[in-house]
Design brief:
alpha/beta; 2 domains
Amino acid sequence: MSEKHLQAGDVLPPYNGKLRLFAMRFCPYAERSVLVLNAKNIEYDLVFINLDHKPEWIFNFSPKGTVPALEYEEGKAIFDSNIINVYLDEKYPEKPLQASDPLRRAQDKIIVENFSGAQAAFYTAAFNSQALQPNMVENFHKGLEGLQKELESRGTKFLSGDDAGLVDYTLWPFLERFLSLPLLGKSEFAIDPTKYALLSTYIEAMKNVPAVKSYCLAPETHAKFTESRAKGDPDYNMLDTSAVCCMRPRKKKE
């Protein structure tokens, strides 16, 4: 896997028979599908796309040119992380990531829906801070408080139980990025461990889930990308390794 993001004029890499996910390295929605593929130990190829200068062929896989898109047969694809992830869980049922109980599956979807206000606040804080309103900070913390209450109510290590599941992999990419906000001068978005003790424990547990650990990025890395995007020149190819864990990024050798 290369961290290079292909762009307009670049040739589509040859298809080699594996599932192929079109993504963007810093996209939380694409990360959701990467985590599910990792969790299920499915062999796949990963192709990163420059979303500002999209290669012409991405529209053959995703009509709007959005990521993620999953090529399941040569030239045939589905798109949207929620659609992809449910498909993967049903197509490869050996390690189910969704609850078997229909009510619990519905409750998991409600958790994700209730968390959407925190996600929206994050995007404004990270990429359009001049439009930030006090109610957005409130919505952010309301989302965190709701998630912590759900963890307390369920009384399990992960929302899915003893092991991380689809609801955890759906929420995690945003929690991962939330940690970068204080580094961007948004201290009001800090996840204070004294206030969010259970949630902080959950975040640390998620960092060590193998599917997450092999792909997630450090807060400093997310902050650096966010700054480049906010300036109008996103540095898609800033990484010099194929995966950077949720630790401090390695320094380049002098």
